[in-house]
Structures are given as structure tokens and as C-alpha cells.
Design brief:
Number of helices: 22
Helix content: 25-40%
Number of strands: 20
Largest sheet: 8 strands, mixed
Radius of gyration: 26 Å
Oligomer: single chain
Mean pLDDT: 93
Strand content: 5-15%
Structural class: alpha/beta
Shape: globular
Low-confidence stretches: none
């Protein structure tokens, strides 16, 4: 029976709410009995649990609520007894009391601080804690994993997403690798742009030799990542981005293909082997093994081993897409000189590996038909799911800053999952509103509804509860910025000056099922646009409210928010406000407020579908 034969009466929609009285009943058995104990509950030095499931949200709510304290009326002072024991070294020597500020509140103990507050301030702190706790305990909102694991624990690093790209300098390449290792240890993932590294075969002035190219350094990062679990609890994650204008882009595009992975894993191009010293021959041998089914069973993972701790994305630019549309040749740029790359013998050898060497003439600018490069991207995405693409010009057009006027704010990479473009040394903490528990108890079924979409959503969604989740979620995430203790000073400085947050969603597919709307339909997409636009505008409104109480982010004066009438379409799209009502500027606490993340285990905890994604494998 196909779906056209099913009547409304034959399909029973799932329950609209999860109002069970206990957390154990609201969660799935897997989340409560397995996921929380394995990953989120605090353990002692012997690995024994010292926190129950309910205690996770209590700990997180108390810790994040402390972010309110620096903004309470009057000067609040604390001594060493209000500091958590693991942070006593942060208390200034020779001082008996210090004022609570955004710089030191992350080191404080909730119960101890509560005791020294005036009664009214204590009640306000308790109220914030209860608001945060209620959202999480009722699975209405869930912060990202580092916050759930580290808030109130010794790491206190609460963000998931970071970007830190290496410069074309051997010292900086390895310094970036060291900084990435520190981020992994603290529970975060790292994105990098490798676009600045000189191409394979380029000159190395200090030695008179030639460069090995960006991919070789990606391999060293990959190996480092394999050895370090994020925060000791999960596998490290990385995103590598390369601008499509880079001369080595063809190798980057193919880097995670099965033939490349097998050739590298088996050392088929080992220069010590006199029978096989060219990578092109190694690739041919690997392809023959794969096509003939001769890869031994115990080596089956070798076809997916190369850069296995990386996701990779090609940074596609407007000029490339215009060249592609015109059917022309695209000229590649040497990042060392910022001039057209003059092909070397190594350049030709690299492009020959992938059967495109006939387009390369040594001594001439490297130009290849854009369609040939685009086809390789499409083939890789189809065969392997990689590379992805990121449209860099579009990303920066949507940025809170005009990057032509302020190039220091240009974004060239994303976090490992690709949903969050970030500036260099910027980080973002994420939180997810559970859409599936916003359907009202007696929500109508779209399949038998007599009315338009606006009326339907008005009847189907609990808008008052939606507002509460947006406002409280934005407040929560702003506090997370304050309460985060980052392992690298440059990250600390950047994050606190920008205060980027990522309020997103989970349970979108589940909500559609509950309302009788097909996922991927025009209506389903329209509902997604309406809901996310509402979150975007209302989170900006709450960020504006927080700015009035706490101050705007430090870089506000250089942002588009300070000059809405110069960017009227951008401003109206992001705030829902008339730019000419805010000619003197629109203060906001956070330069960005929204992100739609994949929500892996966090949506499992929330007992709903992941992010904005459809349900997978619903039948076996």
C-alpha cells in the first residue's frame, strides 16, 4: 500500500507532548540508562559515577546561572572560600576579597556565592537557575555536549566549535596543531582553512627546497587528532577547508576518495620501493585492487582511512561559479604571492594523478576548465559524501561585519560539522530548542485542516512556550560565553569580544509528523522557514534586551548593527526591524544568535529527531 492509499483515519499521529512526571519517563531508556551515565554524568578519578541522571541538569543549571551575578545591582565581592577548589590558583595573591566580574565568575561555586548574596539577589539567582533547569529537565532545550559535560566540573570549557587556521609558516603550522590538541582535550572540535599554505612544488626560501603542500600537514593534524579524544569522552573532530583557487585543490578534492585512501594506507607510493615511486601509479594500483575486489577483508577500512578524522569542504567563490556558468577556464592563485600560480613540474605531476595533467603547461599560469574541477567535486560528494562545499562569499555577505571594510573579520572556515562559520580563534556554543514538544495537545492535523498556513500554525503551536524557550535559551547561551574557560588566550579574547551564540532546533521532523505534514514538501519547507525566522528575530530581540542590561559585544561599533541604514536588507532580514527606526544603531549582546546543528546525542537525550534532519531507517 502506498501513501496515496492511506486515509487520515488509517494513520495515527504520535502524541503531541511528553508530560510524564519524571525525567526517567520523559527520556528514552537508552538515553537515561546508557547515554547519560556513559558520557554526561560526573565520575571520580576511579571512573565511578558520583552524579545521578537528574544531577546533570541541576549541575549545569547552577553553573550557568552564575553568569548573571556580574550584572546584578551593586558590587558583589567574594573571597577564596567562594572559589571552587580546582580554581583556587586563579584567586589573586595577597587579596582577601575581589569583585565578581565576567572574568572571574566562571571560577565560583554556586552554593558559596548564593550564601554571600543579598536576599533579593539570591532569589534572582535561584529563579534563573530554576528557569534553566526546567527547560533542560523537561527536554524543551538542550545545550551542546561540552556544556553538559564540563559546566561545574574542572574543565569548564563549554563550547563545541572552534576555528584556528595555520599561516604559511612552519612554526605557526605546528603551533596551530598544538592549540588544536588543547581544544580537543577540553572537549571541542576544530576547523581550519589550509588555503594560506603554499602549494606542492613551490619554493621554500629557507632551505632552497620545495614545499610538500597542504595535504601533508593535514595528515599530521589527522594523526594528532586520532590520539586525542575530545575531553576524554569522544573522538576528536576536524573540518578542513581549502579555497577553490588554491593550486592543490584537485588533490584536496580527491583526498578522501577510496583509491587515495588505499594508496596512502598501504604505502603504495613508498619512494623506497624501486618498483613504484609515482603517486599516479600508486593510484592506478589501488583502483585495480578496489575494482577487482582484491582488497583483503582485514584491510577493508584502508579505503576510508585517509584523513578519517577530517570532514573536508571546498571554499567555493563567486568568481569560480561565474567562470563555471560561462564554461571558461579558471585560473588558480598561489597563496604565497597572491598572483596566478605558475605551474611547476610538481604542479603538472599532481594534476596528472587525477587525469587532468593535459590542461597544465609548466611555466604557464595554471588554468583548468572550471567544469572539470566542478565535476570532480560532484563525483566525490556522490561516491564518498565528501568534499562538501562552502560558499565563502555568501557566508561573508551574511556576516555581522562588512568584511570589505573590516577584512580582519573575514570567515574562511567552519566548525567540524559545517553549520557554523567562524572567524579565526572564534568559538561558538550551541543550544537546541525542541520543536517536537511545541505542538499543542489538541493540535490540528494538516491533512484535514480547512484554512491557511498562518491559521494552522497559530492553532498548532504553543507560541507562548516557544517564546519562553527562545528568550531563556538566548539568556542561557549568553551566560555560557561568560562561564567558559578556554584553553588558549587568543580564543578567550576573541570569544568574549564577539559573544557569538548558536540557538537552533531539534525535533523538526518529529514536529511535522505530529502535525500531519510531509517532510521535504513545499509546505514542510515553508513551516521550517517560518519557525526559524521567528527564532532568528526573537533571539535578536532578546540579545537586544540583554545588551541594554549588560552592554553590547565589544566589536559592536564596527558591525552592521551599529549602522542599520547602510545595510537595510541585511538588518531587516536578521532582526525583523525597520532599519530607519534604528538609525543610531541597534545594540545587541551577541553578534550572531542562531545555528542549526546536527544534534547527535543531545537530540537522543531530548527524545526527539536530530536537528532539522529527517528520520532515518524507520523500517528495517
Amino acid at each position: 500500500m502506498n501513501d496515496e492509499e492511506l486515509s487520515v483515519e488509517e494513520v495515527q499521529l504520535p502524541a503531541k507532548r511528553q508530560d510524564e512526571p519524571t525525567l526517567e519517563e520523559r527520556m528514552s531508556e537508552n538515553a537515561y540508562e546508557n547515554i547519560l551515565p556513559a558520557r554526561y554524568q560526573v565520575k571520580n578519578a576511579d571512573g565511578e559515577l558520583v552524579e545521578d541522571q537528574e544531577g546533570v541538569f541541576e549541575r549545569v543549571a547552577e553553573n550557568i546561572a552564575l553568569g548573571d551575578v556580574p550584572h546584578m545591582d551593586g558590587i558583589i565581592e567574594v573571597g577564596p572560600s567562594e572559589y571552587r577548589s580546582e580554581f583556587l590558583d586563579e584567586f589573586p595573591d595577597g587579596e582577601q576579597q575581589v569583585e565578581v566580574t565576567e572574568d572571574n565568575v566562571k571560577y565560583l561555586d554556586y552554593d558559596a556565592v548564593s550564601e554571600v548574596l543579598a536576599p533579593e539577589a539570591r532569589r534572582a539567582l535561584e529563579s534563573t537557575k530554576e528557569e534553566f533547569h526546567d527547560l533542560m529537565e523537561h527536554l524543551a532545550f538542550m545545550p551542546n555536549t561540552p556544556t553538559l559535560i564540563n559546566a561545574g566540573d574542572e574543565l569548564q570549557q563549554l563550547s563545541a566549535c572552534f576555528v584556528d587556521s595555520p599561516a604559511d609558516d612552519m612554526v605557526d603550522i605546528h603551533e596551530t596543531e598544538k592549540e588544536a590538541a588543547q581544544v580537543f582535550q577540553s572537549g571541542g572540535g576544530m576547523g581550519y582553512a589550509f588555503s594560506h599554505l603554499r602549494p606542492y612544488g613551490d619554493k621554500v626560501g629557507s632551505t632552497g627546497g620545495i614545499a610538500s603542500g597542504p595535504i601533508t600537514f593535514m595528515r599530521t593534524y589527522d594523526q594528532m587528532c586520532k590520539t586525542i579524544a575530545q575531553g576524554g569522552t569522544r573522538r576528536g573532530a576536524q573540518m578542513g577547508v581549502m579555497d577553490i583557487s588554491h593550486p592543490d585543490i584537485i588533490e584536496f578534492i580527491h583526498a578522501k576518495n577510496k583509491d587515495v585512501s588505499l594508496a596512502v594506507a598501504l604505502g603504495l607510493n613508498d619512494p623506497k620501493d624501486p618498483t613504484n615511486t609515482s603517486f599516479k601509479e600508486a593510484l592506478e594500483e589501488a583502483r585495480d585492487l578496489i575494482e577487482d575486489g582484491k582488497v583483503p577483508q582485514h584491510l577493508r577500512n584502508a579505503v576510508e582511512q585517509h584523513l578519517s578524522n577530517f570532514n573536508i569542504s571546498v571554499g567555493v567563490t563567486d568568481d569560480f561559479m561565474e567562470t563555471l556558468e560561462e564554461g571558461g577556464e579558471f585560473t588558480f592563485t598561489n597563496p604565497r604571492t597572491d598572483e596566478p600560480h605558475i605551474a611547476t613540474p610538481e604542479t603538472k605531476e599532481l594534476w596528472e594523478r587525477y587525469d587532468l595533467g593535459h590542461h597544465v603547461t609548466v611555466g604557464e599560469p595554471l588554468s583548468v576548465p572550471a567544469e572539470e574541477v566542478w565535476e570532480r567535486i560532484i563525483e566525490g560528494a556522490y561516491e564518498n559524501g565528501e568534499p562538501g562545499v562552502i560558499f565563502l562569499d555568501r557566508v561573508n555577505e551574511e556576516h555581522s561585519f562588512d568584511v570589505e571594510e573590516h577584512p580582519e573579520h573575514e570567515m574562511v572556515a567552519t566548525n567540524p560539522c559545517g553549520e557554523q562559520p567562524l572567524e579565526e580563534y572564534e568559538a561558538c556554543n550551541l543550544g537546541h530548542i525542541n520543536l517536537s514538544t511545541l505542538a499543542v495537545e489538541n493540535a490540528p492535523d494538516w491533512r484535514e485542516y480547512d484554512g491557511d498556513v498562518d491559521s494552522f500554525l497559530s492553532d498548532a503551536i504553543d507560541w507562548e512556550e516557544f517564546d519562553r524557550r527562545i528568550y531563556t535559551g538566548t539568556h542561557f547561551l549568553d551566560n555560557v560565553v561568560t562561564m567558559s574557560d578556554f584553553p588558549i588566550p587568543e580564543i578567550e579574547e576573541k570569544v568574549t569580544s564577539m559573544r557569538k551564540i548558536g540557538l537552533g532546533i531539534m525535533g523538526y521532523a518529529q514536529l511535522l509528523i505530529q502535525l500531519g505534514i510531509p517532510y521535504g514538501s513545499d509546505l514542510g519547507n515553508d513551516v521550517a522557514r517560518r519557525l526559524m525566522r521567528y527564532i532568528n528575530h526573537e533571539s535578536k530581540a532578546e540579545s537586544h534586551h540583554l545588551a541594554q542590561e549588560r552592554g553590547s559585544f565589544d566589536e559592536w561599533d564596527d558591525s552592521k548593527y551599529a549602522d542599520p541604514t547602510s545595510y537595510p536588507s541585511w538588518f531587516e532580514e536578521h532582526t525583523g526591524e525597520n532599519p530607519f527606526d534604528w538609525e543610531d544603531g541597534f545594540p545587541v549582546r551577541n553578534h550572531n544568535t542562531t545555528t542549526i546543528a546536527p544534534t547527535g546525542t543531545t537530540s537522543m537525550i531530548g527524545n526527539t529527531s536530530g536537528g532539522c534532519e529527517p528520520l532515518h531507517n524507520v523500517a528495517f
